[in-house]
Amino acid sequence: MPPKRAKARADSLESGDDSEEYRKKRARNNMAVRKSRVKSKMKTQETMNRVNELKRENTILEEKVKTLTKELGFLKELFLAHASSTSNEAKFQNFDLEKILSDDPSTHTDHKPC
Amino acid sequence: MPPKRAKARADSLESGDDSEEYRKKRARNNMAVRKSRVKSKMKTQETMNRVNELKRENTILEEKVKTLTKELGFLKELFLAHASSTSNEAKFQNFDLEKILSDDPSTHTDHKPC
DNA sequence: CTACATTGCGCAATGC
DNA sequence: TGCATTGCGCAATGTA
């Protein structure tokens, strides 16, 4: 149901009126509206800042993964090289070397390679 | 300078007027305003979605770093254990083992440990 | 019912 | 000249 304009004094307040009470009410609402809009804009701004923070953290983490992966790969090669140049692999029998050396870290999660 | 209300026909258009031209202009602006606001809200929504995407990616990367760090630590221990149980460390002299084994990945970047 | 908060909407100024 | 963007007030509606 649309408004109820110009009911003169039907209600004690509301539309199309310039009573003191009405103006006071309008003034308070206008303040509330301004306040609410400022708040809303700040929230939007914070969300955009959050995106930037997260992008930054993400870049750092990706670099870290890259470095760790490289190091791990290097150590694995070292292991394999050593294993093929010696005959007593038995020294490592207490560890599940097979598993570790065949364990590709890039398959630990299902996300895209970076 | 505040508006220029009720200049009757001073301008060919503008405020406080109900000429056909004026109404057409208002109608077009109202459309533009609605359109602009829809666009604005969509952008805000997209930004929020972006935050969620980034948080998700971040979590995955952190898990990956955790796993890689653990693996690397294990391989290092293996190396050290082997090194202390054998006398011919010379086999690894072609690599900068000292550096690798003392290279703590957690110091590669300046962010907090995870 | 009272009071503030949020939201859709139109107006006008201003940006492009 | 015209659409796009923005601050603002009104009224309806939501919330406490």
TrEMBL record, chains A, B:
Keywords: DNA-binding, Nucleus, Transcription, Transcription regulation. It comes from Nicrophorus vespilloides (Boreal carrion beetle). The keyword Isomerase does not apply. The gene is LOC108566344. This is CCAAT/enhancer-binding protein gamma-like. Signal peptide: none annotated. Residues 1-46 are annotated as: Disordered. It comes from the Eukaryota. Residues 24-42 have a biased composition (Basic residues). PROSITE patterns: BZIP (PS50217). It is found in: Nucleus. The keyword Nucleus applies. Residues 19-82 form the BZIP domain. Belongs to the bZIP family. C/EBP subfamily.
